[in-house]
Amino acid sequence: xxxxxxxSEASLLANGxxxxxxxxxxxxxxxxxxxxxxxxxxxxxxxxDEDTLAFRxxxxxxxxxxxxxxDITIQAVGGKLTAKCLDxxxxxxxxxxxxxxxxxxxxxxxxxx
Length: 113
What we know:
Blueprint: E1 2-6, H1 9-14, E2 26-30, E3 35-41, E4 48-54, E5 58-65, E6 70-76, E7 79-86, H2 88-104
Antiparallel strand pairs: 1-2, 2-3, 3-4, 5-6, 6-7
């Protein structure tokens, strides 16, 4: 199953990222492929910057809540992925999707150690 989330315009404006309204952060979680992809169109509006991470490398999910919206950081072995100005409920749902997958997973790896 694929889940998609994107930065909210209200959160981008309230947190000083007004220039990013045309280029919001997007998160795609694919439980079939066991990957998380964060995309953001570059400032020239020509290309898309994309980071993909396999579930087995995830070690921590951090949510930094603001007055309006929240940032999510997914820390992995050797790096981290960050998406800014998402809805607070979306960040909580992302964390819950990963935790639920971790509980139901029949593989030999854990998402969170």
